[in-house]
Design a protein that fits this description.
This protein is an all-alpha fold and 95 residues long. Helix content is 55%, strand content 0%. It is globular and about 45 Å long. The termini are far apart.
């Protein structure tokens, strides 16, 4: 509920107020299916992207609710693990 509330009250805030770089980059890549932008998305946009992972469908004058954000956050954690483990910024050490 905290993520929903901040997304609504501070939509223009930097998304790194709540999310780590690997979190927002993993979500951006999964939803848009392209490389993350150089400029970080705003918090309101990021909450919508996470909610889309949880089944939220964009509609005019509509905000995602706690359930779709919660489900999206669970998916975000899995995507972030994969990003941190196998993503483009990973430095693989040879043994």
């Amino acid at each position: 509920m905290w993520v929903c509330r901040l997304g609504r009250e501070l939509p223009e805030a930097d998304c790194e107020l709540l999310f780590e770089p690997s979190e927002w980059k993993a979500v951006w890549t999964a939803v848009h299916r392209k490389k993350p932008p150089k400029n970080r998305p705003r918090l309101g946009e990021m909450v919508h992207l996470i909610a889309q992972l949880g089944g939220y469908i964009e509609r005019p004058n509509s905000e995602p609710g706690p359930q779709t954000v919660w489900i999206g956050l669970q998916r975000m954690y899995d995507l972030t693990w994969a990003w941190d483990t196998f993503g483009p910024e990973t430095k693989i050490r040879s043994g």
